[in-house]
């Protein structure tokens, strides 16, 4: 096995989630990728839920660079876990940003997530063709001193293992304008139910089923307000969320492609072959993701940085397509016949293409941004 491939990523994973890499490595890929997957329990046991929680709230306080390396390492062992935990980390990152402006509830919740190793699922609007991903799936109605939620999210990763659910909701302010709010909902709240939805064995371990909310009552203090209106121009909170989402998601899928590269480099008789057709595209894409992650430490979190993150994500899609073709050709028909792992990894890796915002949907918004107009997420 090549010792200098994925070595930095696995070192970060060992440092921040001790024992997780070894635990995942001892399971066959097929066992990790089915639901229920032992990977989710292993992630919790290793302290994974606290990865992005600041140290002030008892978390690991990982930087963006360390986090994307961790996600790549996770994706290389268990694609479903990388996808599922991206949604957790994305939700936690949003709470971290909200804690800078909130009344203390967010900080207390973050500490609880880290100390009790809670899993946070996301019910943001992902997965509907043609729909803006900031548009809430759930309806929110004020009834006396409560907010009542109705609707569903499908698919919703970690649907069967979540401890908390975050959701986008539309709230009408005193000025009559509807703005986006972020609701924090305990998974055991009356009215929440989970139903089968995911119909393919690919990434089944992510538990991406349907979560329904029927007259779910919530205290208004559990809703964090933002300044985003129907025009969907990202504010600081949402830019932060999008940055984390794009980088962590891309890193995870690059990890999946890297697992295929690793198998190709290690195949019998492959030690004398030119590794660059398999190695270079995925490594270059990972470097692009790391460059944006480094910039998150030094540069303003603005629309320009988000465009760089989207650029790295779309470049990774191309790199994954090129890498999977190259690896499958090098592995040959006998690998396809004797083991499902390589064809599975190739199928899972292309899943990055299906997450919003799709490149085709962003064509006009990116053109408008280049011409000096505000960036809109389509």
Automatic annotation (TrEMBL):
Segment forming the signal sequence: none
Name the record gives this protein: Putative isobutylamine N-hydroxylase
Keywords: FAD, Flavoprotein, Oxidoreductase
GO molecular function, one term: acyl-CoA dehydrogenase activity
Keyword Thylakoid assigned: no
Origin: domain of life: Bacteria
Organism: Kitasatospora setae (strain ATCC 33774 / DSM 43861 / JCM 3304 / KCC A-0304 / NBRC 14216 / KM-6054) (Streptomyces setae)
TM regions (residue ranges): none
Protein's UniProt keywords contain Chaperone: no
């Amino acid at each position: 096995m090549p010792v200098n491939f994925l070595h930095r990523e696995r070192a970060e994973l060992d440092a921040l989630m001790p024992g997780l890499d070894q635990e995942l490595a001892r399971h066959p890929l097929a066992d990790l990728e089915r639901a229920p997957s032992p990977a989710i329990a292993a992630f919790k046991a290793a302290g994974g839920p606290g990865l992005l929680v600041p140290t002030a709230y008892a978390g690991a306080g990982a930087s963006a660079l360390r986090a994307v390396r961790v996600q790549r390492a996770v994706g290389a062992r268990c694609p479903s876990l990388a996808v599922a935990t991206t949604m957790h980390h994305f939700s936690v990152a949003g709470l971290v940003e909200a804690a800078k402006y909130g009344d203390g509830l967010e900080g207390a919740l973050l500490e609880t997530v880290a100390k009790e190793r809670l899993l946070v699922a996301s019910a943001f609007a992902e997965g509907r063709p043609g729909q803006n991903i900031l548009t809430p799936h759930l309806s929110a109605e004020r009834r006396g001193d409560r907010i009542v939620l109705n609707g569903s999210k499908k698919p919703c990763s970690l649907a069967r293992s979540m401890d908390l659910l975050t959701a986008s909701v539309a709230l009408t302010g005193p000025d009559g304008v509807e703005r986006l709010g972020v609701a924090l909902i305990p998974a055991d709240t009356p009215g929440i139910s989970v139903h089968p939805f995911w119909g393919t064995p690919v990434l089944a371990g992510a538990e991406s089923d349907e979560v329904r909310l029927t007259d779910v009552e919530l205290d208004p203090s559990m809703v964090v307000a933002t300044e985003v209106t129907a025009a969907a121009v990202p504010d600081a909170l949402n830019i932060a969320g999008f940055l984390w989402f794009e980088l962590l998601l891309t890193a995870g899928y690059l990890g999946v492609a890297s697992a295929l590269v690793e198998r190709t480099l290690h195949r019998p008789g492959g030690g004398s072959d030119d590794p660059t057709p398999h190695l270079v595209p995925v490594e270059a894409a990972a470097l692009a993701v790391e460059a944006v992650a480094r910039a998150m430490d030094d540069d303003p979190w603005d629309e320009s940085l988000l465009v760089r993150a989207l650029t790295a994500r779309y470049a990774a899609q191309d790199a994954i397509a090129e890498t999977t073709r190259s690896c499958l050709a090098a592995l040959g028909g006998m690998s396809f016949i004797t083991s499902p792992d390589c064809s599975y990894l190739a199928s899972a890796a292309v899943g990055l293409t299906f997450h919003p915002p799709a490149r085709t949907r962003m064509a006009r918004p990116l053109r408008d941004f280049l011409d000096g107009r505000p960036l809109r997420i389509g």
